[in-house]
Design brief:
With 512 residues, this protein is mostly helical. Helices cover 47% and strands 1% of the residues. The relative contact order is 0.10.
Amino acid sequence: MKKTTTRISIKLFSMLLILVMALASPIHASAAQDFNDLQHVFESVRQEIEQAASLMIIEGFGDGTFRPSEPVTVQQAVTMFLRATGIPVEWTTAMQTGVENNFIQDGLVANAPMSRIKAAELIANALAHFGIDEALQESEANDLLAPFTDIDELTDAQRNSLAVTIKSGIFRGMNETTMNPNGIVNRSQMASLAVRLQQTIPLNAQEQADWEAAMNRSLDWIRSEITPGPLVGSVGGEWAVLALARANRIAADDPWLQTWFADLEELLLEVHTLTEQGFDINHPPSVGTFPSELRRWTDFQRVSLALGALGIDASNDNGYDLTAIYQTFTPSAQRHALNQTIIADAFALIALDARNVSGDQDDFIQSILESQRVDGTWSLSPARATSALDVDVTAMVLQSIAPYYRHGDAHIDAAVGRALDWLRNQTFSDSESTAQMIVALTALGDAFADEAAYYVNHLLQWHDSTSGAFRQRASSGPVNMMATEQASYALVAYWRLVNDMAPLYDMSDVAQ
């Protein structure tokens, strides 16, 4: 049964590019208990602050405070309301984005305090933007406003906006008779208003159609571009097979796969022949001993996942055991240089767990936990300072331990938390890193569906509506196969999540 998803707010990437407050450097906090100054806030408001923080509509400060009584400026309010409704926004262009989407009129002073009546007008405009038009009769508006004794100076347009927001359940008076329309909105009030707005606007059907259409068109493009069929390899090979198979678009008997099966059989025979001649694939005398498409642990892991997606046992594929090379844990220092990366450990765990193959999972997990850096990252080069290059790696390693999250191991739970905290504060500036974050969040399960949706929307900026493929970085650059494969299987992972299907790398649902 398909899940219903709450309206997602602004894409996480855009939100984390900016500083929300002018006087301090806020940090993301996923729960209100992270804030140390909410002791005197009403419980209902505290819960709304918690939700606003978890949706990354609003953020706390580096000293652990939320500062609930601090006033909000027009620019801050516009940014947060745009985030709450899922419209892409950057701090430097928030006012212009608000004007373009008819949330505000041009000419507002960005750093002016945000009054309550201006906030009501902005909310009413946002509701109208999404087709939620209350179309109040004057008599109904008067009835809604009758209890309040301090709104006589409002214009008819302001009264209507206020009535619309009251009827929607978003806006409330200070008490039963006082609205205080010229009062300044503070941060706790802003969090409450933004959360209520986010809850009022349902998931846009067109938005859902957009990502599903992008998924289907990218899968179509992959199949049409890889002709006559895929070959074993990291591009135009296993990831394409995995994406299409997990989308239920191909099965093992699909003629399109004949080239891939033939190529795999030839490569496995070559590996077998070299092994019979006394060569050890784990310690080849040179990197050229074994075929380039099938010499690394990650090559065998990638093929195992594609076979598993097709319902084929990688531990016995026509007499070959593709899992043997990575099934047993070997300390990194004792491996060939090709297999000394954290990705080899991560995908060993993923590939073994995909079809529930018995191996040294515990040792791989321990290696992964020990390799995590203090800041929450994993890196291909642990000695190098943390950088944006670690986004993809950290997200992929997170995918490997996601199935163990919240299953009673406090060390794994803590590692996941640290990784998420770091990832949430990174700039996702290309389709591939965004795709890996989507796969990680979908692997963590239902509780992360809304957050995964942030990144799904963010990913679509690299979708080429003409071809159906994806670009890697520039929004107007050329499309390419690697970016399209990663984007497509990420969208498939999200599609499986919202349709209550097994995660991307959990092949337990595939008949063998």
